[in-house]
Structures are given as C-alpha cells and as structure tokens.
C-alpha cells in the first residue's frame, strides 16, 4: 500500500490527559500502516514498553526540579515551548538526514500545547497537524476568553460571575476556562499560541459531532483549516495498552466483581486536580451517608496537606467497612466499562468525561479548574447527563446527588439520556458515522502529503 512507507512524528504534551489521546491516535494510524515515532519530553515521559510498535525519542526539555515540583502547568508549558524549540528541530533534522527514502517523515502531529513543533515542521518543510485533546465547547470558551480580554472584560468582577457569557451556550462567567496556576498574561500567552493554526494543515479533535455540534459550527466559521472530529479516541482500539504515569491498582476490579449491577459510584479527580480538607470531609460523609458502594481514586498528594489518606477520619473508615474501596490509581477504562459501576463522580477532565459518556453512565461533576468547569456545565445543562455540585455544599447535597444518579426515581431521565448518548456515539463510530468518516478523511489527507 502507498502509505506503508510513511512515517509520522507525534509530539504529545507531557500530561496524562494529553498523552493518552495522542498514543491512541498513534495506535489507530499505526493500524492503518503508518510507522509512528513519538518525540517526547524527559518530563513525564511515556513508557515505551507499552508500545513496542512505536519508536520513542526523548528530547531535552530543560525543566528544573523546582519548576516541575511547583505544579504550575502554565509556567511548565511556557518553559517547554521555549526550551524544546531547538532540541526538537535538531532531533527532526537528524531524523530527516538519516531517514531511508522509503520511510520518509511525511507529517508531524503535535498537541496544541506543544506549539514549538510548528516552527521546526515549517522550517523543514514537513506538513503538520494539531491534535486538540479537549472539547470543541472548551476551545470556543477559550477563544471567547481571548476576545473578552481584548475588550477589557477579563478579569471580570465578582458581580458578573453568575451572568451568562454572550454567545456561549449556557456558560456563566465563572465557568470560563481561565487558569489560576499563573498570571493571566502567561495563561493567555499559552492559549493564544495554541490557537494559532496558521502554520498547520488541519486540526484533529478528540470529540464527536453528536456532542459538540453547535460549538463546532461556530469554530468552523472562523477556522482557516479543516477540522476532523475523530473522538472518542479511546474507543478506537479498546485493547491497546494505556501509558499510565502511575501504577494501576487492578485489585479494584476484583472488588467490583463482588458488587451488584450498576450499584457503585466511581470517584476520581484525574491526574492533576487536588482538594482541600473541608471538601474532603464533605465528600467523605456524603459518600458514607449515601449508603451506596463506592470506588474512590485518591492519588498520592491529591489531598492538600497530606501524602495520601492520612486525613480520612477513622470513624469514616469504620463506617464504610467493605462498602468503599480506595486505590491510588485505577485502570479507569476497565472500571468505567464494568457492569457494577452505575455512576461517576468526576472532576470533568475531558478524557474522563468522554470515557464516561461513551459508557452511558451518568455523572456527578465537581470541577476544579480550567476546562473542567466548561465540561461540568455542559454535562449538567447542555447534554444533561449528570449533576454539577456547587462550590459550597449544603448538608445532604452529596448523598442526595449520589442517590439521584444511581438509584432514585428523579434521576431516571438522566440515566436514560446517558444511555441514548452512548448509542449515538456508537453510531458515529460505525461504518458511515461521523467519526468513522473523519478518520478515513484524515488518513486520506496524510497519504496525500
Ligand atoms: N485515569 C486513570 N486512572 C485513574 C484516574 C484517571 O487511568 O485512577 C486516566 C483517565 O482514564 C483519563 C486520564 O487519566 O484518561 C485523565 O485525563 P482527564 O482529561 O480526565 O483529566 P486530567 O488528568 O487531565 O485532569
């Protein structure tokens, strides 16, 4: 086949929620006959042993230990983009010089936050494609933040935080994806650079038309390059291994096997978010009082001020007995597809949101920052597949929410809609569906390069 000789260089952003979709896209393209080279930072490097079919090349990222441990994602992204520009170009130049004629690099696919890649690709005359690992709704919200900032409306006063944002479907000012990791200026630098698509040939989004149609239509109006909605990427090859940055504790699957059908709430706040002591206490007692079984991922360091679960009260552990199971990191895809899991308490990272929507199970959303707020609002108010918890919990709110999404009659509509959306996504992925067609078109585009 013509594409057998083509080699693609993929540049993931070194965070779990970005590595997963990039490697999933790589697995799909590999199955279509392309050879795949992953160029990655030393920081949070993916594990090559999970993907013997790919070639992995690390590049120096120049990140200092204090910067990495600060957890300031915005500053880390700015530093990566400054430091990797020349190391990536050097790496690419060497690869091009050494390449066999029948295995030429024909395209660079880079995460939108690894925008340093575009310059090197241009310089070497190699076409590039941007991968966006977030929803179209969030992209649109970020564009609106840029626009509102240019008109002097960002930062916004507290008095408008509950007002609707003009042109954005049901979002309030407080839902806008503004990062508080760094200064507003630094955050906007990252966003503006990642939105600059002029040097690329196309955009690939890990979303699907049936979820994001209205946002997509608005984006497409102003976008100079074609957009391919190929999500949910994790569904393309469910057998492909995950490149987890933390070790998965599979013992929770045995615990799930013992629980009744759709009785368990799975609780996870993803790979970055953390909570304070007060929120922990509310979650703890809400889960205990709901009387439903729960599987809770508590990542080491995700409870502020403690290494792991030291702050969980002893009475809580006694009260839950066998009803609750806590792990440091779960095999999430397997958990979400398990018959015992009936609902998901999520921070609404886009991967987790998509993974859950694809399994047709309702959500409790408790966003922490950035895009999570946009997704929580969409899950609860636009797609209506779950409930969003407020910033401050009223007594009994959590247990009522848990019971509503899992068992109570007033949650039935949410459960039915969640099942319908799962079916729509399945249709989009099967022959003739929108994701299926976009994937074919993407392969055709790359072959033409
Ligand atoms: N994940 C996992 N095990 C866990 C928690 C999360 O494998 O215990 C995976 C999850 O399946 C998802 C990713 O980590 O693919 C998190 O990405 P997301 O976009 O949801 O959130 P982020 O971590 O970027 O905030």
In summary, what is this structure?
This protein has 16 helices and 13 strands.
Write up this protein.
- With 449 residues, the protein is an alpha/beta fold.
- It has two domains: 6-242 and 430-448, Glycogen Phosphorylase B (Rossmann fold); 251-425, 3-Layer(aba) Sandwich (Rossmann fold).
- 43% of the residues lie in helices and 14% in strands.
- The protein has 16 helices and 13 strands.
- The chain has a seven-stranded parallel sheet with strand order 3-2-1-4-5-6-7, sandwiched between helices. It has a six-stranded parallel sheet with strand order 10-9-8-11-12-13, sandwiched between helices.
- The radius of gyration is 22 Å and the shape is globular.
- It starts with 6 loop residues before the first strand and ends with a helix.
- The mean pLDDT is 94.
- The protein binds uridine-5'-diphosphate.
- Uridine-5'-diphosphate binds at residues 15-17, 20, 244, 268, 270-273, 297, 329-330, 332-333, 349-352, 355.
Topology:
Elements (H helix, E strand, L loop, with lengths): L6 E5 L4 H16 L3 E7 L13 E5 L5 H6 L2 H26 L6 E7 L4 H8 L4 E5 L3 H15 L33 H11 L7 E4 L3 H14 L4 E3 L21 H7 L6 E5 L8 H14 L3 E4 L16 H7 L3 E4 L4 H5 L4 E6 L3 H10 L3 E3 L5 H12 L3 E3 L8 H10 L5 H18 L4 H15 L1
Parallel strand pairs: 1-2, 1-4, 2-3, 4-5, 5-6, 6-7, 8-9, 8-11, 9-10, 11-12, 12-13
This protein binds uridine-5'-diphosphate.
Uridine-5'-diphosphate (UDP) binds next to helix 1, helix 11 and helix 12.
């Amino acid at each position: 086949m013509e594409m057998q000789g083509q080699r693609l260089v993929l540049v993931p952003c070194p965070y779990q929620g970005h590595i997963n979709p990039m490697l999933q896209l790589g697995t799909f393209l590999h199955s279509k006959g392309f050879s795949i080279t992953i160029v990655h930072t030393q920081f949070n490097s993916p594990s090559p042993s999970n993907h013997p079919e790919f070639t992995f090349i690390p590049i120096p990222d120049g990140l200092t230990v204090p910067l990495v441990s600060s957890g300031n994602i915005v500053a880390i992204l700015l530093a990566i983009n400054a430091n990797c520009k020349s190391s990536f170009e050097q790496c690419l130049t060497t690869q091009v010089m050494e390449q066999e004629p029948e295995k030429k690099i024909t395209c660079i696919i880079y995460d939108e936050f690894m925008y340093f890649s575009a310059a090197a690709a241009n310089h070497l005359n190699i076409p590039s494609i941007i991968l966006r690992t977030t929803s179209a709704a969030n992209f649109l919200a970020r564009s609106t933040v840029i626009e509102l900032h240019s008109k002097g409306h960002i930062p916004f006063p507290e008095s408008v935080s509950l007002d609707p944002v003009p042109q954005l479907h049901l979002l309030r000012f407080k839902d806008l994806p503004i990062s508080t990791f760094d200064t507003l200026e630094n955050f906007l630098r990252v966003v503006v650079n990642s939105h600059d698509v002029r040097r690329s040939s196309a955009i690939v989004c890990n979303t699907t038309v049936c979820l994001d149609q209205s946002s997509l239509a608005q984006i497409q109006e102003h976008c100079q390059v074609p957009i391919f909605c190929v999500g949910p990427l994790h569904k393309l090859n469910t057998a492909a291994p995950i490149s987890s940055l933390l070790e998965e504790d599979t013992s929770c699957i045995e615990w799930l096997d013992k629980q009744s059908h759709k009785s368990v709430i799975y609780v996870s706040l993803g790979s970055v978010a953390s909570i304070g002591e007060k929120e922990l206490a509310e979650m703890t007692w809400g889960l205990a009082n709901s009387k439903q079984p729960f599987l809770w991922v508590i990542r080491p360091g995700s409870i502020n001020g403690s290494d792991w679960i030291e702050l969980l009260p002893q009475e809580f552990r006694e009260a839950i007995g066998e009803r609750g199971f806590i792990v440091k990191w779960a095999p999430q895809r397997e958990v979400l597809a398990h018959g015992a899991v009936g609902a998901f308490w999520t921070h609404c990272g886009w991967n987790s949101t998509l993974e859950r929507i694809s399994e047709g199970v309702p959500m409790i959303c408790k966003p922490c920052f950035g895009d999570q707020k946009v997704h929580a609002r969409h899950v609860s108010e636009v797609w209506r597949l779950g409930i969003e918890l407020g910033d401050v919990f009223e007594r009994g709110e959590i247990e009522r929410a848990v019971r509503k999404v899992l068992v109570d009659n007033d949650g039935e509509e949410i459960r039915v809609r969640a099942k319908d959306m799962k079916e729509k996504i399945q249709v989009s992925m099967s022959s003739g569906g929108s994701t299926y067609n976009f994937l074919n078109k993407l392969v055709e585009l790359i072959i033409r390069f």
